[in-house]
Write a structure and sequence with these properties.
The protein is mainly alpha-helical and 86 residues long. 53% of the residues lie in helices and 0% in strands. The chain has 4 helices and no strands. The longest helix is centred in the middle third of the chain and has 15 residues, at 43-57.
């Protein structure tokens, strides 16, 4: 799988990906919605997010990295950083 820094990280696409993962409507994944407190993120959802990010963007994201992120903006920044470092 060949991904490069030219792979864009569209915030709305990422919001849709998170909505599918959380089984919510995209509008419920607001920029400041806290994954655990507001959306009910648990270890299974954390693993699913990591898998979906790897499949879509070709980046390896660990559970530990995701545990330190609590919002959509945090995931967006993490993926952007990983793609830039690739």
């Amino acid at each position: 799988m060949s991904h490069s820094t030219s792979t864009p990280v569209d915030l709305e696409e990422l919001r849709a990906l998170m909505a599918v993962t959380f089984e919510l409507a995209p509008e419920e994944i607001t920029d400041d919605a806290h994954f655990t407190r507001d959306l009910g993120m648990d270890s299974l959802i954390t693993l699913e997010i990591a898998t979906r990010l790897e499949d879509r963007y070709g980046v390896d994201v660990t559970d530990e990295e995701l545990k330190g992120i609590s919002t959509l903006g945090g995931v967006h920044e993490l993926v952007r950083r990983k793609l830039a470092a690739a």
